[in-house]
Every structure is written in structure tokens, then in C-alpha cells.
Amino acid sequence: MKKDIKKIVLAYSGGLDTSVMIQWLKENYDNPEIIAVSGDVGQADELEGLEEKALKTGASKFYALDLKDAFVEDIIFPCLKANAVYENVYLLGTAFARPIIGKGLVDIAIQEGADAICHGCTGKGNDQVRFELAIKAFAPDMHIIAPWRTWELKSRDDEIEYAEKHNIPLKINRETNYSKDKNVWHLSHEGLDLEDPMNEPKYDDILEMGVTPENAPDVPTYIELEFEKGIPVALDGKKMKGQDLLLALNEVGGKNGIGIIDMVENRLVGMKSRGVYETPGGTILYKAHELLETITLDKDTQHFKQHVGIKFGELLYNGLWFTPLREALSAFADKTSETVNGTVKLKLYKGNITSAGISSPDTLYSEQIASFGEDDSYDQNDSAGFINLFGLPIKVKAMQDAKKQK
Amino acid sequence: MKKDIKKIVLAYSGGLDTSVMIQWLKENYDNPEIIAVSGDVGQADELEGLEEKALKTGASKFYALDLKDAFVEDIIFPCLKANAVYENVYLLGTAFARPIIGKGLVDIAIQEGADAICHGCTGKGNDQVRFELAIKAFAPDMHIIAPWRTWELKSRDDEIEYAEKHNIPLKINRETNYSKDKNVWHLSHEGLDLEDPMNEPKYDDILEMGVTPENAPDVPTYIELEFEKGIPVALDGKKMKGQDLLLALNEVGGKNGIGIIDMVENRLVGMKSRGVYETPGGTILYKAHELLETITLDKDTQHFKQHVGIKFGELLYNGLWFTPLREALSAFADKTSETVNGTVKLKLYKGNITSAGISSPDTLYSEQIASFGEDDSYDQNDSAGFINLFGLPIKVKAMQDAKKQK
Amino acid sequence: MKKDIKKIVLAYSGGLDTSVMIQWLKENYDNPEIIAVSGDVGQADELEGLEEKALKTGASKFYALDLKDAFVEDIIFPCLKANAVYENVYLLGTAFARPIIGKGLVDIAIQEGADAICHGCTGKGNDQVRFELAIKAFAPDMHIIAPWRTWELKSRDDEIEYAEKHNIPLKINRETNYSKDKNVWHLSHEGLDLEDPMNEPKYDDILEMGVTPENAPDVPTYIELEFEKGIPVALDGKKMKGQDLLLALNEVGGKNGIGIIDMVENRLVGMKSRGVYETPGGTILYKAHELLETITLDKDTQHFKQHVGIKFGELLYNGLWFTPLREALSAFADKTSETVNGTVKLKLYKGNITSAGISSPDTLYSEQIASFGEDDSYDQNDSAGFINLFGLPIKVKAMQDAKKQK
Amino acid sequence: MKKDIKKIVLAYSGGLDTSVMIQWLKENYDNPEIIAVSGDVGQADELEGLEEKALKTGASKFYALDLKDAFVEDIIFPCLKANAVYENVYLLGTAFARPIIGKGLVDIAIQEGADAICHGCTGKGNDQVRFELAIKAFAPDMHIIAPWRTWELKSRDDEIEYAEKHNIPLKINRETNYSKDKNVWHLSHEGLDLEDPMNEPKYDDILEMGVTPENAPDVPTYIELEFEKGIPVALDGKKMKGQDLLLALNEVGGKNGIGIIDMVENRLVGMKSRGVYETPGGTILYKAHELLETITLDKDTQHFKQHVGIKFGELLYNGLWFTPLREALSAFADKTSETVNGTVKLKLYKGNITSAGISSPDTLYSEQIASFGEDDSYDQNDSAGFINLFGLPIKVKAMQDAKKQK
């Protein structure tokens, strides 16, 4: 254990873990100064009273970084443009937030001349990787402290005992809870009964951003989203900045039972884990964006972009945001997004999102050509030649096979 | 136009198109013998009375090929194992049926010594390609006749006039309808108001295999599916053969508003088109299979298989079933399916399919390792080393960048 | 056949084919005006005397388009940056030239108000596709005439007879020859004895841009190439513009037996064909560029770029240059090329290109870290943790397998 | 450090490292029994006298595993069938050998009831990963000891001092040397002056399996290889088993300066490293196999297989041989190899391998169709239709763009 640590920047949430860590760091590192830093990516009420709590539990300073707009504009929208999804269904809510918070920690650490950055992530999860990769990208030699990987506190109860023993002033209750991660894009739930994939989630206990389809209204809600270059700019005809638009979609989506997923995923650190995710607004945005792309991207681009979306999702999930490959794939996605302009009307009803109309000044859909009727731009007889050449390898193979059998 | 055609096998549906074609072929090819062939892939009532109709309108013979079991076992299930999907959402219902019907046509043509095969596909669609590629695979030199690409009848009205003029005995009505394709896996709808992507589909007029989510029951239905090597073998504990299982799922899925999609797709022949597809049972099967794979496939296999599923979907869509690449990808999928055994419980409710429990004797999910608690198989401190090496390229790049700036 | 054609732009090479075509077009289209256009992409001596010949054989006008710089800067270098290769070995020489010539034809056709564009490509090859796709991209409604696909002249002898009959003034000899395509990047050879893959090429008769390894000097030549953002800017310390640099590399490469390939390739139109290609300078450039990328791109980027290079090569080969996907992939390649700066020293010897030293201000190679000795940036013990997590899926699978066997 | 270790299986090479390790293990683990195991994958003379040396330096037992045939048949040939290559050029010689040796170690460890397996790999390399993943696949709970990652001996000199101090009887010389790895497939060289990519390799000092092109004969050598299902079965008409064939190719390839590569590669553990590899016979095999595939695989299969070869190479390089994905990709490659039958004639000359004739009973190359002349199977006019449909997306885009500009 590196010893000459005088000042530590701590990624601070105000929960049990990071409160205990302040004390633990002081004890285990010769009483260093602790700078508590909280990055606001839309976790809302969780942020209230943090400064007071941090100072009371031993931090010398507290920074609240307002990262909400940057989170939406600089991370979420570029991922939307790339159709980043992990393992078909996960919209990457936790993964999206980590790089920008990690960079925020480095900014403060450099400004404060800190010797180390400490985070409260478990040693079994993805977030430790995501935070640390962001730190390495901007401060490759920064010392990183991850107490959960090494300390003697092995459970929530251990932590509470430690807190009580050291008079750490916390409202403590010994009830356990799902492990959660919240931001403007999503809310995740892990642990407890969810750890067995045989258990159906108790959604009514779990959900916070919205309701189940069963509890959603019996009449549909229609909304209309406008996109410019792959980015949503207006909801129901009203121009809005990204964050506000997303909040409005969370509201309407949550109310209609949209965007609840339950999955077993493959963590980067080698294990499978199970989580329930709420992404009401994000799910609507992805669907609308995908629909708009079906009329504004040509086939070859759409098809190749499917592979890019998978790769982009993997990069994000693995914390590889600040990397040359992610940046190059964003250049690709930016280029393809130049024509992703237009309006998508959606019907939301009890968990379902249905297209109610797509239009675009850049549409590549030609009603005339698609129609069963005649048209000038398409000579049906061209198909005969097309099929003969497209099928030539099949024909040749069949001919050669026939020759062999003789 | 090739002239010495004495016997033609006609892919016969009994509709206006193929009824008119019998007469048209006789007229345009010096009165050849017409063998009408109908491949039964589960289009049900459409098949009744076909023989009588065929003979009455001029065919000399009629064959009804029962392809239902082969369709399910030899085409659908291999595609399910490969997770074949086209453009993220289309479950390939029409594409699935074409190769097996095409091969059936060749079998009869060879048996009957026919000179040509005729089909009633439009020159703008995918089905002409799919039929003809299947034909080329088994009879590379077979002459193919596709009247829609060349004849003078340019619309339904032209056809009806032609039929009346030639006393073709049909129950004719001049109402137009959506263009449909039906089989045991799905029902598709194209044309009319659907040709403008701005129009929301009139689902209540369109749907036949089920109802909209709005019209589905207010209480959920739970089902349980058992898989062996990637293939469904039992529903709610009852062993069933593939076709019966699929029919039962169509029933329960349709009732619960499952599997309705509305999409603009890219046809192989170069245009975008818009369709509404009903695939109630298929959608349930794909979802269940995907869920089961999340616990029975390892990460690397799952991730690579995403790309294979896309490719497999493209091959199917493009009619490339009887090809070496499709066969090799099936060998891949068969191998990965060896461990895809187990049971998936699902909740169906107004268009939503939700996991209600997954279990497998081959599960790779380890509750012990995934858990937040301690365990023997995973040393949390290993993460530190993992992250340092996984992040080494980022660190090196940051270090080299820093050096350059000096 | 469309009849009201008054003015035709003809892609003119001055060879037998296009000379005959002038007469044939006049005869078959009611004596239209013929504008002969020749695009100079470095085919050199083939271009001399073209204007005179065109006018003498019936053209009313002749345009010589100097496309050499644009060819190198706007097509070749972007492809080099993307590592575009077709089927592992083909450096796409013919494919590179077609889009830019096709666009040149459209430019003249629009300027001249022509009704049609005519090209002399065979109906079995790729070039017809490449030309026509470029034309469609800029003049989607332009009428295209491709006589080889329809005329009655089925062989070289037929053409010569036709020429003699119509007094077309040509130096005609009845010797046949390999079919060739030449530009500043390459020279291709097809036909005759090459049509049987069993025949070893008679290289001494075939080669024009250089010699065989056997005939190359017995002592090696060393050269040094400097790159900026993925583009070669200097040879042996001398800054040169792209075309001059390429010509110099052709000279030294050809002399040393570099860049001769013999391949059976898959044409877009469905058949396999066999060709011998000379690309002396291009082969050196690709090798140097690849070597430089090994120290300036990080692993993830390098690995993903392998797939991009394959796709880019397919797009080029298939004539899909002026397409959204190609442009988006170029945006990707441009981004990755930002760090591809530095110098590569190469030894050329009898067909071999060997690295003799690579250096870059943007190198990601760290001798300190790679070294077998100790260093501060890499703690060898980190590997233990890395391997445990990287191998966790293998361990879990083995554990679950063991459990099953009990 | 785990302490209750009574019996250790040591991967033993007889070199300085593993000789010192016997003593070091005894000292650091309370005098455990050491079982030395050497896996023979064709490293030849390195294996002589190993048993005596092992016992003399403290091992209680010595096993020599003859893995040569299994290495060639079970690892190398399946990789050849999949075209496994790492980063375009590396033929994976070291990576190929590790899984089979790793499994051999486990077999002995289980048979002997050992508590741990020890290997002599450095903590900076790939081989530690490859060995340990193979061990985990068959003995997930086996304790693994990797002294280089932890011990106090930081250099060759430290080791020699340690050996002298403990009277370990070795022929010791203090000269340093390139780090090498040898087997029947290849010989690798790393370290010393090679650690700087600016240094041209001193090939005359380095090469052991063959000579440089400069030192190769002035006249070419012709050879003929016969393949069955993707596997070489005969050389110059003589049927041979895999290992003998490979040895014969190493001989003729090495003599002709074939298969020398110099590369900077990306190690799995995050760093770039530089190596020189000799793979004379392997390079010939890969080239012959690739040539044969150009006439026996159809385009779609060939193109998709390019991506599979890259993935397969990455899996191998990363030690992921005993994994479900590798096995599934082998199922794919086995299927594609069913038609890879035939004969390839090659000319070897000073580092160059040139095709001198390819033939196959399963050829898909049709001289008739490829020819410039007329044929019955291909109607040139089909191209017009093909191009119109293939180019339809380009045309539609151009039309829509034109409409927008109005």
C-alpha cells in the first residue's frame, strides 16, 4: 500500500459506503485531507444535503459538479446516434455516466493537487473499470484507491459497525435494499431476490421512474419527436434542450410503463449478473431514432451500422469512452447522422411503443417505387437480370455438383 | 421468349393472379400442360378447394405438398437457433417459407419432366428472388417464367378484365385489399394506406392472427417453454411437436397482442418498402430463446453470435438458404446450441413479454460469484490487476500524449 | 431501345472497341452526335493521338480530362488510409479509377446537354457496374448505353470486320492480347492462357511496370517514406506531391520485382475470374502504411479497422464509392489517421519488402514496457488478477461442467 | 501465498529459468515434491538430456509428453482450416503450442495428485495467459504458481547468482540472447536490439530455420501440395502424415527464404511488443490453402470467412482455445472445408511464393463463364437489370437529393 498520500479526491455519494470511506482513508493513510466530489448526472434528491454531510463526516472540502447537460449532450446523444446497445437490450445507463464523472474527478484532483483518487465501487463490478479507465485517460500516473477490493469490511453490517464504532453520524438503518444507480437516463436495480434468475422481479416494489404496464393508463398517449442530425430537438412541436426533453420523456414514458427491462448480462470482469433497468425516456428516444433511420439511411449504411452499434455498446459498457476507437466510431456515426432529420410520431400504451407516422425531408422511401403499381423509375423486368447474376454462384455450384455426380 | 415449352409447373395459390396465369401461359406458350402445385406451409383455409379450382381453370394436374412439419423443423428452428432477424425486428416469416416451397416446385418439375417453372411474384419484391434461387440450387438450367415482370396486365383491374374475357370462373370482387402472405409462422400486410409511412396502420382492420394490445385481456397469461439444444420441445410441461407448439403459441400470443410489428424495410431489389407483420408465436419463441441463451452461452459466444444472427437474417431475407455459407453458419449455430437447454417462464400481457424465470442445467450464471457478498471463486483484488492491464493502452497513450506536449 | 437520342457522351479509349462504337451508335441511333471523352488517370502513352483519332472516326468533339491528381489525392489516398483491400490481396487498381472517370463523364454530359452516356465495358465484368453507379449518383435519370451487352458483335474478329466494312480507319492487327487496364496505380492482365488457373502466368511476356523477382537486381534498395495523417508526403527525405511520389515508387518497386499478384477473384456479377496485377508502388505504400499503423494505432482500433478495411475494399470493388456508407467509413478512417505520422524505412529486394525501421512522434510502442527488464509502469503481478478475471468464464464453465458430471 | 503445497507440476524446459525454479519452489514452499513435465511440440534438440537435468536439479520425476502429432493434427490443422492469423501477418506459432501443453500439465497434475502447477512465463507476456486458461479449462480450482510475477530475481544475472549460490548444476554462460520459442511450426525471436522498432533485424545472426532471401538459391523450387477437406495430405505426390509434411515444408521453405516476418504486435496484456518469426512451412501451407479456397469457396463464404479468420486468430492469440466460441467457429470452418479439395503447385524463390497452378474437383471457377467469349450460361444483357437494381439505392438517393435542391 502506497503510503505518502496527503490529499485524496473521493467520489462521494453520501451513502454508507463513501461516508465510512472518509474515516477509513484517514485511518489507513496517515490522516490525509479528503476532498469529496459529487458529480450530478441527474440523480436528483440523492444530492441534497451532501455538502453538510461530507464535511460533518470528515471531508475538508466538497465539490458538486453539475454534469447534467454535458452528460446528455456529450455522452448520451453521441451514443444514441451510434445506436449503442449492450447485448441487444441494455441501454447502458450506468455505463454512460461513468466516464464523465471519472473525468470530473481528475479535473478536481489536478486542480487540488491531490495524490490519489478514491472510489467506492465493488471489486466485482464494471464501474470500477469505467472510473479507472477515465482516470487513466487524463492522469495516467494518478494513484487510485478502491477500498472495497481490499478492506476488511465485507458486508453492509460490517460497515455499519465500523460507522458506529467511529461515531460516523449517519441515519443508519439495517434494512438492506437493492443496489441502485440513478441518473437522468436511467435507474438500475441489482441484488437480493434478483440474484436468482428464477425469481420474477417484484416490480411494484422496485420501480421508481414509472409503473408497470398493468398500472399504466388504459388509453394511449401520442407524442411527436423531432430530430436534427440524429439528435432530438423538439417534443410535441416544442423546441427543448436535451436534458429537459429527456426529463419530459421520462415522465410520459414512465407513466405508460415504457422501458423496463430485466436481463442477465455479461460483466466485463467475467461473470454474469442480473439487473432490472428503468429507462423510460431513453427507450422512447432509441425507438424513435431507429424508426427515423429506417427511412433516412440507405440499406448498406443501416446494415453496417448494426455492427457498429454492437461494438459501440461494448466499448461503452467496458468503460472505453476516452479511446481512439470510440472517437473514430463517433466520426462514423456523425457522418451517417447528417441525414437523420425528421419527425416521428409515437403511440405509447402500457409498455408498447408503436410508430404512428414517420416523415423526413431526407427520406429515401419512395412510395412510387415501393408501390405495387407501375412506375417510371423501376422496370420490373430488370429483376430477371438481377436474379440471374445475384444467383450465378448458386447456379454454378449446382452445375459443378451435377457434373461431379456424373 | 423461349417457345418450346410443353409442360409448366406453376406455383399455385388459387388467387386471382395464378388463376389468370394458367390461361395466360396457355395462350402465350402454345398451349402447354400446366401442373398446379401448392405448398402447404400453414396458410390453412386458403388451401381449401384448390384442386377443383385449379383443374377448372385449366390445370391438368394439381399437387398439394404438405410442407408444414418440414417448414417448422428444417427451416424455422434452425433460424431460431441462429437468432436470425432482419433489420432488428423482422422475423422473416415470408422469407422462411420460400426456399422450401421453391424446392418443392423443383421436385415436382423433375418428377413430371416439366420444361419450366412459373411463379406469380411481382417484379418488385423479394419473393421472386427467393423462389428462383431455390430453383437454381436444384435445377440450375430450369427455365423460369415470371409473368408479372413481362405481361401486359399492369393492375388488378387488368387481371379481372382478362379473367372475364377468358371466362375464367372466379369469385371475383373488385375491392382491393392489402397484399398478404400467410403461413404457420406469420401473416404479412402490405400496400394501400400502408404505402405511406406517415399513416398509422388501421390495426383493427388489419390484424387476423391476434388483437392489438388494447383489445387484449386485462390479466396476464403465464406460459412455460422448455428447450433442448436450442429447440422448443414442451409448452407448459406438455411435450409437443414443433408445429403444434407453434400453433399453440400463436393462439396465446395473438390473444395477448404479442408480435405485431410495423416497419420500413430494405428489400433486396433496392427499394424501401413498408409492411405490418404478425408473428405472435414466433415472437414468443425468439424472446424465450434469447433469454435462455443469456444464461447458457458464455459472453464471447453471445457477442459473436449477435453478428452471426444479423448475417443469418440477411441470408434468409435474400433467399440464400441453400448456400454453403448458410450451411456453415448453421453448423456454428448447432454447436452453440448444444448447451441451450432449460426452461423459460414468461408473462404475456397486452403486447409485452416479460421474463418470469429462467433455469437451465447448463447455466453459466453463478449466483455465488455474481452476489455482492464474499465468495471463494472470485478475489476482488484481482480486479486491480485486471484494470491495470485492460487499461494499459489508455495509460500508454496518455503518457505518450503527455510526453509530446512537453 | 430508346430512340430519341441526339447526343451521346462516349467513354473513349481509342482502342478497337470504342472506335467501332462511334460508328455503331451513329448507325443504331439515327446518327446522334458523339462526344468522345477520355479520362486521364495515368494510362500514359495510351492517350497520345486520341483527339485526332476520335474526330477521324466520327466523333464531333473530344475532351481529355486530366484526373491524375484527383485520382491520387481523392481516391487512392483515402483508400490507403482505410487499408482497402479486396479478398486479401487485390489492391483495387481498376476499381479505384472507375468512379472518378464516371463522374467526369457525367460532368461533360451535363455541360454538353447529352441524352446518354455510352461505355465500352463488357457485360461480364465489374467495370460496367462501377461506371454506371457513378453515373447514377450524379445523373440518376441519364440514359446509359452499353453496346457489348446487346450488339451483334460477339468477338474481336466481328469488330474488325465491322470496322473494315465501315472503313473505320484503324491500325488493326488480328493478334489477340491480354485484356489490360492501366493507370498510375496499377496494370491488370486478364484473358488468354490466364483463363485457366492451372496455367502459371508467363510473367516475362506479361509484365510491363516492372520485372519478376528473378530479373530484379541482386542487391537490395533501401527507401524511406514519410507519412502525415496516413498519407505519404516524402520519399527519401524529399517532399513530393502524391502523383510524383507514386510514380517514383512504381519505378523503384517495379525494378525490384515488387507488387505482382496472381489471383482468382469473385466478381460482383457472380463469377470467379483470374487476373494478374502489377501494383509496384501501391504495394510499397500499403506495406509502409500498415507498418506505421502497427506503432501508431492502439489495439482496439487496429483490430476493428481490419474489418473496416475488408468492407471498404468490397465497397470499392463493387463501385460503391459515391455512397453514404463509403463516406462514413472514410470519416472513420480519417479520424484514425490523425496519429498515423512518422517514417518507415524499407528494404526492397527481389519481390520482398522488409521493414528496416519504423518511427513516429505518435508511437504507442513503449520500449520500457515491452522490455523483459523491470519498469515502473507495469507491475508484473497485475497479470495474476488479469488472468483470473479474463479467464473467469472458462473457470465458471469448467466448474459448472464438473457439477453436472456429479 | 498459499502454503500447504506438497506436490507441484512444473512446466519444464531445462533452461535457466525452470532449473532455478525447482530450487526456488522447494525453498519457498516447504520443500514440495517437484514433477518436471516437458511437452514435446517439436522443439527438437532442446529436449535432449532433459530428464537427467531435471532429476539432478531437484525434481523427483520427469515426464516427457510427445505432443507432436496432436499439435499438428488437433491444433495447427484446425487453425489452417479457419485461416487463423493475428494482425494480418502473425501465424501464431507460440500461441498454437500453449493450449496443448497446458492441457498436458493438467493431465499429469491430476494423475499425480499435485496441488499446484508452476510455469516459467514472464508476467509481461501472453504465454502466462495461454497456459493458465488451458489449466482453468480442465482444473478450474488448480493452484497456479508463476514465480516471475512475484519473485525477487529480476534479471538473468539474478538468476545465475541464485543458481551459483544454490549449487544448481548448469552449464551457465552470462551471454544474453534473444528470447526464443521453438516448435515444429515456428521459431520466434524477441528482445535485445529488436526492442527498438527502428532497428533492422540482424537476420544473419537470428535465423535458424532458414536463410534470408539474399542467401537463398538463385533458382526456384517447385512443389505440389494436395489437400483433402482443407488439410494437406500429400507433398509432391507423396502421401505423408501431417508432422512429416510440415517438416518437409520447413526444410524447403527455410532453404528458399520463405516465411520470415518482423512485426510489432499488440499483446493481450495491453502492450505492444516486437518480434521476428520464422514459419517457413506454415507460410507455404497458409498460402496454398488460401489459393485453393479461391476456387473452391463461393464468394459469400470467402468474404464472411475473412472475418472468422480474424476472430479465430484473436481467440488463439489470447489463449482461448478450449472455449465454446472457438469450438463453434471450428464447426463453421469444418463445414466450409468440405469442398476444399485439390492440388496447388507453388514456385518458391527467394522469399516469394507464387502460384504455379491450382486445380480442384470442387472448383467453382468456370472458364466458360469467366471467358470474354460468348457462353450459354451467362446472358450479358442480364447485367443491365442487375445494375439497375443493385444501383437503385444510389439512384433514389440522387433523385431525392435533386428534389430537395429544388
UniProtKB/TrEMBL annotation, chains A, B, C, D:
It catalyses: L-citrulline + L-aspartate + ATP = 2-(N(omega)-L-arginino)succinate + AMP + diphosphate + H(+). ATP binds at residues 11-19, 120. InterPro entries: Arginosuc_syn_C, Arginosuc_syn_N, Arginosuc_synth, Arginosuc_synth_CS, Arginosuc_synth_type_1_subfam, AS_cat/multimer_dom_body, Rossmann-like_a/b/a_fold. Its main location: cytoplasm. Its EC number is 6.3.4.5. Residues 178-396 form the Arginosuccinate synthase C-terminal domain. It is found in: Cytoplasm. GO terms for molecular function: argininosuccinate synthase activity; ATP binding. Pathway: Amino-acid biosynthesis; L-arginine biosynthesis; L-arginine from L-ornithine and carbamoyl phosphate: step 2/3. Keywords: Amino-acid biosynthesis, Arginine biosynthesis, ATP-binding, Cytoplasm, Ligase, Nucleotide-binding. Pfam families: Arginosuc_syn_C, Arginosuc_synth. L-citrulline binds at residues 90, 126, 130, 179, 188, 265, 277. It comes from the Bacteria. GO terms for cellular component: cytoplasm. It is an enzyme of class 6 (ligase). GO terms for biological process: argininosuccinate metabolic process; L-arginine biosynthetic process; urea cycle. Gene3D superfamilies: Argininosuccinate synthetase, chain A, domain 2 (3.90.1260.10), HUPs (3.40.50.620), Single helix bin (1.20.5.470). Residues 7-169 form the Arginosuccinate synthase-like N-terminal domain. Belongs to the argininosuccinate synthase family. Type 1 subfamily. PANTHER family: ARGININOSUCCINATE SYNTHASE. HAMAP family: Arg_succ_synth_type1. Homotetramer. This is Argininosuccinate synthase.
